[in-house]
Amino acid sequence: MGTKVSDDLVSTVRSVVGSDYSDMDIIRALHMSNHDPTAAINIIFDTPSFGKPDVATPIPSASNGGKRVENGIKGCSFGDSASVGVTHRVEEEDESVNGGGEVSVSGNEWWFVGCSELAGLSTCKGRKLKSGDELVFTFPHCKGLKPETTPGKRGFGRGRPALRGASDIVRFSTKDSGEIGRIPNEWARCLLPLVRDKKIKIEGSCKSAPEALSIMDTILLSVSIYINSSMFQKHSATSFKTASNMAEESMFHPLPNLFRLLGLIPFKKAEFTPEDLSSKKRPLSSKDGSAIPTSLLQLNKVKNMNQDANGDENEQCISDGDLDNIVGVGDSSGLKEMETPHKLLCELRPYQKQALHWMTQLEKGNCTDEAATMLHPCWEAYCLADKRELVVYLNSFTGDATIHFPSTLQMARGGILADAMGLGKTVMTISLLLAHSWKAASTGFLCPNYEGDKVISSSVDGLTSPPVKATKFPGFDKKLLEQKSVLQNGGNLIVCPMTLLGQWKSEIEMHAKPGSLSVYVHYGQSRPKDAKLLSQNDVVITTYGVLTSEFSQENSADHEGIYAVRWFRIVLDEAHTIKNSKSQISLAAAALVADRRWCLTGTPIQNNLEDLYSLLRFLRIEPWGTWAWWNKLVQNPFEEGDERGLKLVQSILKPIMLRRTKSSTDREGRPILVLPPADARVIYCELSESERDFYDALFKRSKVKFDQFVEQGKVLHNYASILELLLRLRQCCDHPFLVMSRGDTAEYSDLNKLSKRFLSGKSSGLEREGKDVPSEAFVQEVVEELRKGEQGECPICLEAFEDAVLTPCAHRLCRECLLASWRNSTSGLCPVCRKTVSKQELITAPTESRFQVDVEKNWVESSKITALLEELEGLRSSGSKSILFSQWTAFLDLLQIPLSRNNFSFVRLDGTLNQQQREKVLKEFSEDGSILVLLMSLKAGGVGINLTAASNAFVMDPWWNPAVEEQAVMRIHRIGQTKEVKIRRFIVKGTVEERMEVVQARKQRMISGALTDQEVRSARIEELKMLFT
Amino acid sequence: MANSNLPRRIIKETQRLLSEPAPGISASPSEDNMRYFNVMILGPSQSPYEGGVFKLELFLPEEYPMAAPKVRFLTKIYHPNIDKLGRICLDILKDKWSPALQIRTVLLSIQALLSAPNPDDPLSENIAKHWKSNEAEAVETAKEWTRLYASGA
């Protein structure tokens, strides 16, 4: 620490100065004198304001010896409350807590910080100044002052001061003589913002000055600095949301600098300071020294380029390989193992035991008691010279100040479990829940009657510590401050995507010994908001959606639900959900109150390095939860291609992230996980002649449109329409019927709404025509017909309706027939009743089927479906189950026809199912041996679901992003899979699908930086052109 | 052959006309042109045309059903809305045509026109005048003509 003052020295000095001076005064004097007792004594006697002999209070000392320490504030009243004088007493024998409340600093109280000498510069000639003269300081008032950011450029040279903006000059004067001089810029810089905000007050007098002043003469001043108590309130009023913005501005923090100028030395230094980061002291290079290919740095550019792309299907993910390069796959084979908790009903694999040990260690990190008494490494503690013995803590990163003890409790206790998909993160987490249950730990888990600002007992023998206040996040989380008095102590909270809700529940029930963990699912409209209920359960499972909605409601006065609980442990499953740090969900997650925090994700970075920031903020990995620091030291260097950014990320992550992949090996070099082999192949299909005709026609039409865009140079402006063109082509490869599928009828799928609309007659202002409203009876009849799904026929073509529309007079016709009957394209007569109808008034009639054509009757197999059926037929006898993935639920609709015709029983999972239905489907699929096929939309099945009951995956259509495909397929190729896995992708030859393959490969190259900047810019257009060749 | 790309609607209408003919009406397409129909309408009872069998020709133009069919009486008929060439004055065959109408509905309308002659919107001025000035006599003439020209031959 280098700042320790030995007891010997203190007593030496005390023997001379007597007991009139407090220990602190003596220590401070010793600091100022560089531990020279003689000099210290001189300082004490020479400085009039040094200490106040009438107060002789023992004070906390930095020495760790067994000294009796009493940190008392006696008889002082602060602010408007006269009864707050409170003593915090921490005694070595009995570490009990006496304090009932906390030091009230609510008023407008000035606290003496310290005094110092400084050398002012004369700006006058001939004026008189003598030692002891009171000085008045004048501060410029102008706005827009920017803190000077180039220290060392002090204007000592003649003429140079003139170059500076006069706005940051602090002048001093005497009552008699007027302006005398100015204080050094170094001081002015610190004082200006603080004085302007009325946080700091300065008093001073002349110590010595030349007989006759001339310009640029040095005047020695003695100044005393006072700090306003409101300084410490500012931060409690800084809400979390604004904190993230304000941090961006500058890295210059006046208060810590002022303290430095005053010669205040923290009696407890921050272990982790900005200087550590800027200098090379911090071991940045990871030991393996794996050179990160600078090409990785291209990642961001690629990403940015893609940002304005419409449609999330174009979202750029980074590949696993790149991810490993960025975050580094730790060599974790050396980790110790921890035995499977006896309450876990399955045996953990060795690497899972390692994870359990690792997690346990991270959680233990600092045991709670200890943590509560340890200073957070980003903060330093100062004793003010004020007689009231105030201890002030400064954050060396943010410049925040507080008088509340920032303990390591605020620090991350947890981390990121980033094992690749399929290694069993869920089971590892459950084992952690079992290994360290909150009930067992609850004795050490803060005070049971944790209340307000109560002081926490420190039970560590021999450690004298400043008054230890309960966890607080100065300048970080207002909500926490407001709420803590009403927070219930809760157990584990698991936040996951909705799809995984059931899986978490069933996995916990399956793996944990009955009765060992009570599980409660906090989900649904009618979920109770009672915090007691939530806190009673060992495990509460909820979704990100619920979290966001409770976060947004949380500003209401009554604290209910998730935010009314102080969780023992929070686990974010699929934690990349919060990757966007500005999103509500990310803010919601960061605002949760918990002791231990975990992120589970196979992809800690999905698109951008920035994704990590949000995770680190949630985990409270300081100082990286502060955007300014993250941005300065990681994000910017990374984006500018400075390798240090990346290296720093690795060193940040190293201790808090565990990532193994399926190819990781154990100590003996064996793979940690042996899965049955996966056989992945692409099946190339040929279009039949009629399909080819259809496709070619569609392609030509699309290409004409695309070429137009190219000609006009508007390709990127019409991205959405181009994607739409491509979408049609891609669907055509699946089955031409898809292209004929109809528009969305969702608006009036509620038939009651539809009939209301008819009867109200409010059809776009045509009311002037009078009551052209169809009779209620007729409307009832029409609606009833629709409800029953009666086909009926179009009065024009006499066929079953194709893409039926309803007129405002409630007549049903094929859209095309109706439009063809009109002379102009926007309006015409209703063919049935001759009322004038405009095109906008038409309502697409809701129907069961979304196809224009009667697909059942006119069923034709596409070549892709034929190929699929062949494959399925080959598997039928073995009874092995298959999953069919498609991006289009419409294609799933179509697939049902050939499946039923060929007697394959199937179930289906897509986004329309609610949670219970999903669970039912998955259960059926895995338990009913006769069900061979699961139809699944790629999106619904993307994450988390365990589908190892199936051993075949058929990816019916290629996805832009191979990572999404991979993720889906990995649902079956994961832990628990016993059979050989067969993966088949279908690609139709000579179509856009084949081009997509090429683009996919190209994208990979782009991500890995094989293209230059210039190339990247034109790449997107090129890519599109390629698809239209 | 011209019939090869006959719209499905026409085929469907034809089938229905043949399988479930409307009472008092028969219509059958010509062998060599499916758009040309031979039509027979029985004179409605309690009308001057009762007992008569009236032949008509009906032709579906290329635009059908977006354009009205062309219909003409082949049998001579004494009616204020039908001229001596057999042309019919009926709004749905002109500006009030709607594609939701069909051959059947057109013929039914013509049948109804026989029951309710409308001399206020005449096609044949003389007959209309006759009808207005001396309805009984005009009706008698119509019965006469029915016997003369439309008696089952």
From TrEMBL, chain A:
InterPro entries: Helicase_ATP-bd, Helicase_C-like, HIRAN, P-loop_NTPase, SNF2-like_sf, SNF2/RAD54-like_C, SNF2_N, SNF2_RAD54_helicase_TF
CDD domains, alphabetized: DEXDc_SHPRH-like, SF2_C_SNF
A UniProt-annotated Pfam family: Helicase_C
Cell compartments where the protein resides: Nucleus
Domain Helicase ATP-binding positions: 406-622
Biological processes, Gene Ontology terms: chromatin organization; DNA repair
Domain RING-type: 794-834
Annotated source species: Arabidopsis arenosa (Sand rock-cress)
Domain of life per record: Eukaryota
GO annotation, cellular component aspect: nucleus
Sequence similarity: Belongs to the SNF2/RAD54 helicase family. RAD16 subfamily.
Descriptive protein name: DNA/RNA helicase protein
GO MF term list: ATP binding; ATP-dependent activity, acting on DNA; helicase activity; hydrolase activity, acting on acid anhydrides, in phosphorus-containing anhydrides; nucleic acid binding; zinc ion binding
Record domain Helicase C-terminal: where: 864-1029
Keyword terms of this UniProt record: ATP-binding, Chromatin regulator, DNA damage, DNA repair, Helicase, Hydrolase, Metal-binding, Nucleotide-binding, Nucleus, Zinc, Zinc-finger
PROSITE patterns for this protein: HELICASE_ATP_BIND_1, HELICASE_CTER, ZF_RING_1, ZF_RING_2
From TrEMBL, chain B:
Pfam families: UQ_con (PF00179)
Catalytic residue positions: 89
Molecular function terms, GO-annotated: ATP binding; ubiquitin conjugating enzyme activity
Domain UBC core: 5-151
One CC-aspect GO term: nucleus
SUPFAM superfamilies xref list: UBC-like (SSF54495)
Keywords: ATP-binding, Nucleotide-binding, Transferase, Ubl conjugation pathway
Family annotation (SMART domains): UBCc
GO biological process terms, semicolon-separated: DNA damage tolerance; protein K63-linked ubiquitination
Coiled-coil intervals: none
Family annotation (Gene3D superfamilies): Ubiquitin Conjugating Enzyme
Enzyme Commission code: 2.3.2.23
Assembly and interaction partners: Interacts with yeast and human Mms2, with the RING domain of RGLG2 and with UEV1A, UEV1B, UEV1C and UEV1D.
Family to which the UniProt record says this protein belongs: Belongs to the ubiquitin-conjugating enzyme family.
Function: Catalyzes the synthesis of non-canonical poly-ubiquitin chains that are linked through 'Lys-63'. This type of poly-ubiquitination does not lead to protein degradation by the proteasome. Mediates transcriptional activation of target genes. Required for postreplication repair of UV-damaged DNA and for adapting root developmental programs to suboptimal availability of iron.
Protein name as it appears in the record: E2 ubiquitin-conjugating enzyme
